[in-house]
Design goal:
The chain has a six-stranded mixed beta sheet, with helices on both faces. The chain is globular and about 85 Å long. It has three domains: 211 residues, no CATH class; 344 residues, no CATH class; 36 residues, no CATH class. The chain has 31 helices and 19 strands. By secondary structure, the protein is an alpha/beta fold.
Length: 793
């Protein structure tokens, strides 16, 4: 019945639908503002190398995936990138299109590669023929509909709630006269007679547009990119559904919508048919990089080798460690923690720090006080296995909920079309006090703590011991515990910033690490846990106390939460607070040197300044991931550019923890690194635009100005200081202290992780005793393996 209706051969139907699926999978997900998670914008391209991805994204998006050659040439002239770096990158390239020698590569360094240009859509061709900017008309019309349809509680009214995107848009579009006013006569009727399902609409449009199965994949991809961040939001809906074992068709719906526009425009302006057929032929050609794209990929690799060479020089071997330290502090692996950890260890030789993903191994969905909404406090790659809550007694819960409802009602009164005028009349003068306070950055300081969280339903004694043991092993904290052990999550106090959650903990799905750190501290202090740990092979000293904390990465203040009885540890806590305060002062002074116009003391004001576009740099600059004992990196100034994960392979039986590190924290770190990379080198497609003209739409994301397409990724002010990029776009260098064969064994088991390394999206190195000994090459091959490896080789 379906095939008869479409009148398309079955093989062609299959090919076209497969192309639509492939195009959809090439779109990265964009998480909503309340739980922003950094996402690899090249998630759909990890099966190919950088040069091929550059060719594909040039075709569909018109972007370059590497920095301008002039920047590389400047670094070569300054000696930052050496001839050895260039030669090593040239030798490593397997492309037949690469320059024949170093001299030719250096000669091409001074000739910029051609400006990328996407293949035109029908809308672009018709715009050239008629003078009407149809891309802008589509963006305006589609963006207006999408903002209402996908709204998550911001709007007071949404069109056609409860219906799929395609059905809802068809009803909207049959009454939207914008296209007809712009000159596309009969568009409403064209939409009304469109097929009733997205799949049918895709197939009919492909037939009318003359798209072959060979051309369809990149042609469809081109149209999805043309809709800005909305397909990325739809890809997130699919991601979320698949994580829960389901599916979602919104991406196909959006593709069908965009194809209906293409159909109508081609019928409106048939004189572009010849140009469109040439475009189809270009789409049907295999995706293959040009010699310039190959050269740009080689130069990118050379820049990364230069950084790896300097990083290897800083890792000079393992340092000694005290048998029982005076203080231990576990921080998130976040690069911002590296500065604070180094500053804290400098306070006293008896201080040890650890690095572990900020959800602290507890896969929790959390129910905040006064709410039944669930917040994920774990990496986006995982499903929660536990539920926690900060709900208190019934009276407090009731008052909290009443206050929240009153706040929402007041907000709706302030925003509604009619009552907003009454709000100004009634509350304007009083509201002026708040405006003045915020303008002078006199708002409340610090992140507001929540009531202590607890696991709903509790855990049995065995579950407590097993969970605690698993976390301690993963953290490489199975012996040598201090009297006081701090578990420090992180968050960021910012004001008037829609991307606030992007500054929080990525391992906690854009929430702060407070809940996770407090839950773990409570678990490890629990008498039932302590009683059961010896049976798990772990013996905690009776005098060891775990205390949760939260590192504010804007101000470098650490708040401690002594939820458990701290009798006998008052002196330890006071001393720890002094050390943390001194370390915070050092960290602020170091970080302020990178922030335009900042001093160490001014960081507090920046946290509450509603006009501050750069309260901190977030993870800008991230370039390395090191999984090793702290002895390998202690005392080394890694300049806040390295994710530091504590790992002792000698205590990792069966290499289960190594497998966990490579398949979870490394992947999350790669998402962060590549999001910063993409937002820097291709901001038009993968960046969030200009903060100064952002407007929040639907609680989902932002648009620039008063409408248009959703902007995914990082705002320009997050990666650029106004004069030059603040982020050095480098693919992440992963260094793991473990036997090379054990690392390769994990990669053999996980194809999706292996392809990140095999296709160059990540670099991989093995360490021994704190020194680089081997470099990974595609195909489970290692260069080196004995003495320290020359990274220029």
């Amino acid at each position: 019945m379906f095939l008869k209706h479409t009148q398309i051969a079955p093989a062609r139907v299959t090919g076209l639908l497969h192309a639509a699926e492939a195009a959809s999978r090439a779109i990265p997900p964009a998480f909503p503002l309340d739980a922003t998670v950094a996402v690899n914008p090249f998630l759909g391209h990890t099966g190919e190398d950088l040069a091929h991805a550059a060719a594909r994204l040039c075709r569909v998006a018109g972007v370059r995936l590497t920095r301008p050659r002039a920047e590389i040439a400047t670094r070569v002239a300054a000696g930052e990138i050496t001839d050895d770096d260039l030669a090593a990158a040239l030798i490593a390239s397997s492309s037949p299109l690469k320059p024949i020698d170093l001299a030719m590569l250096k000669a091409r360094l001074h000739a910029e590669s051609p400006s990328p240009a996407a293949l035109p859509t029908v809308a672009a061709l018709v715009a050239s023929a008629t003078g009407t900017d149809w891309a802008a008309v589509i963006a305006r019309s589609f963006g207006l509909w999408a903002a209402g349809h996908f709204d998550r509680g911001q709007a007071l009214w949404t069109p056609r709630p409860g219906h799929g995107a395609f059905a809802a848009w068809r009803e909207w579009a049959t009454h939207d006269l914008t296209p007809e006013i712009a000159g596309l006569g009969g568009f409403c009727a064209h939409v009304a007679e469109a097929p009733d399902t997205a799949d049918r609409a895709v197939l009919r449009a492909a037939e009318r547009l003359g798209l072959s199965a060979e051309a369809a994949e990149t042609a469809f991809h081109r149209l999805l990119v043309d809709l800005g961040g909305w397909p990325q939001h739809a890809r997130w809906l699919l991601w979320r559904a698949e994580l829960a074992g389901g599916s979602d068709t919104t991406l196909t719906d959006l593709l069908a919508i965009r194809l209906i526009w293409e159909e109508a425009l081609l019928a409106h302006c048939p004189q572009v048919t010849g140009e469109w057929q040439a475009t189809i032929a270009a789409h049907a050609a295999p995706v293959s990089p040009t010699p310039d794209q190959v050269i740009d990929a080689i130069l990118q690799d050379a820049a990364e080798r230069a950084h790896q060479r300097r990083l290897a020089a800083a890792l000079t071997g393992s340092a000694p460690r005290a048998d029982r330290p005076d203080l231990q502090a576990a921080f998130c692996i976040d690069v911002r923690s590296e500065v604070m950890r180094r500053a804290l260890e400098a306070q006293d030789g008896g201080i040890d720090t650890f690095g572990f993903a900020g959800f602290f191994g507890l896969p929790v969905a959390h129910r905040p006080q006064g709410s039944d909404e669930m917040q994920a406090h774990l990496p986006a790659l995982l499903n929660p296995a536990l539920v926690s809550t900060s709900h208190t007694d019934a009276a407090s819960e009731a008052s909290t909920r009443i206050a929240a409802r009153a706040t929402r009602a007041w907000g709706r009164f302030r925003q509604a079309a009619v009552s907003s005028f009454a709000f100004v009349e009634a509350a304007g003068p009083a509201y002026g006090v708040k405006l003045v306070r915020d303008a002078l950055a006199l708002g409340p300081r610090g992140l507001k703590p929540a009531p202590p969280p607890q696991i709903e339903g509790g855990l049995t004694a065995d579950q407590k011991a097993q969970t605690a043991a698993a976390v301690l092993r993963a953290m490489s904290m199975t012996a040598g515990h201090a009297r006081l052990v701090l578990l420090v999550g992180h968050g960021a106090q910012v004001t008037n910033n829609p991307h606030e959650s992007a500054y929080h903990c990525g391992a906690c799905s854009g929430q702060t690490g407070e809940v996770s750190s407090r839950l773990l501290a409570s678990l490890l202090n629990d008498p039932e846990t302590r009683a059961g740990l010896p049976a798990q092979g772990i013996h905690l000293p009776e005098d060891t106390l775990f205390v949760a904390g939260l590192h504010d990465t804007v101000t470098d203040e650490v708040t401690l939460y002594p939820d458990s009885a701290a009798s006998g540890h008052a002196t330890d806590l006071d001393r720890a607070k002094d050390w943390l305060a001194a370390a915070g002062s050092i960290a602020r002074a170091e970080r302020a040197r990178r922030l335009p116009g900042a001093t160490g003391d001014s960081l507090f004001r920046r946290a509450v300044d509603w006009a501050e576009v750069r309260p901190e740099w977030g993870l800008a600059g991230c370039a390395a991931f090191i999984a090793a004992p702290r002895t390998a990196t202690a005392g080394r100034d890694l300049k806040g550019r390295a994710f530091l994960h504590s790992y002792d392979w000698t205590a990792d039986k069966g290499f289960a923890t190594l497998e966990l590190i490579l398949t979870a924290p490394v992947v999350v770190a790669s998402w962060i690194s590549l999001q910063y990379y993409g937002s820097t080198v291709a901001p038009r497609v993968f960046g969030g635009g200009n903060k100064l003209i952002h407007n929040v739409v639907g609680g989902i994301g932002v648009v620039e100005g008063n409408g248009g397409l959703l902007r995914p990724g990082l705002p320009w002010q997050t990666v650029h200081d106004g004069v030059a990029p603040a982020h050095d776009p480098l693919r992440l260098s992963v260094m793991v202290e473990a036997p090379a064969e054990a690392i390769a064994g994990v990669l053999r088991k996980h194809d999706t992780v292996r392809e990140l390394f095999d296709h160059g999206w990540l670099h991989l190195f093995a360490l021994r005793d704190g020194r680089v000994t081997a470099r990974y090459r595609p195909g489970l091959i290692w260069e080196g393996g004995g003495e320290a490896t020359d990274l220029a080789a």
